[in-house]
Amino acid sequence: MRPFVLLATRPEDGPADEEYALFLRYGGLRPEDLIRVRLEAGPMPVLDLDAISGIFVGGSPFNASDPDARKPAVQRRVEAEFEVLLREVVARDIPFLGACYGVGTLGSHIGATIGQEFGEPVGVVPVTLTDAGLTDPLLRGMPPTFNAFVGHKEAISSLPGSAVLLASSPGSPVQMFRVGRRVYATQFHPELDVDGIATRIRAYARHGYFAPDELEDTLAAVARVPVTETGRILRRFVELFAR
């Protein structure tokens, strides 16, 4: 099998390593099947898209909707690199699944409206599939509504006509969309389990996702509601597109 690639941007080693492990686990992949590239540490390498099965994008501290003047140099570099990559990915319909930061990268590329109106605090939300989501090959077998982990300051408020809305939540109208047949992005985190989101809650306790004195309440809240279905999306992505 040709490997998949995980494009990551988390600077903290603990959450970054755990993110990679979670993509391996829920994708049903071995380490040799998933090449990790930490974009915060250096430039994106040249990716031979004919030599890989597909691309995953993990979460990020970056917000695509921030004014350019407030973006650090590394974020501006990463965004420029994604723009070049996505030009080819979308044109060739290369298998792509961006989780959370994938909404910012893919959404920016296709001209979606992104802002902070529909940000969601760290927690568990019900995600409901649209009619298109119910018939999408990647979401086959998923229940019409399922719980998912979220935590994001920005979100898409509207999609261009080139994208297909696949899922929404009560607080965020675009939880998942598709471009072409094989290019996807989710606002929720399909790779996370309770331990994984607990690691991130602790790591980003002072990054503005919740008040510092809400740490214990936030940890309790994400453990209270079961999240059992989202990992199937990663496994299905691998089943569909491994070659």
TrEMBL record:
Keywords: Glutamine amidotransferase, Transferase. One of its GO terms (molecular function) is transferase activity. InterPro entries: ChyE-like, Class_I_gatase-like, GATASE. The keyword Transferase applies. Residues 51-192 form the Glutamine amidotransferase domain. GO terms for cellular component: cytosol. PROSITE patterns: GATASE_TYPE_1 (PS51273). CDD domains: GATase1_1 (cd01741). Pfam families: GATase. This is Glutamine amidotransferase. It comes from Microbacterium paludicola.
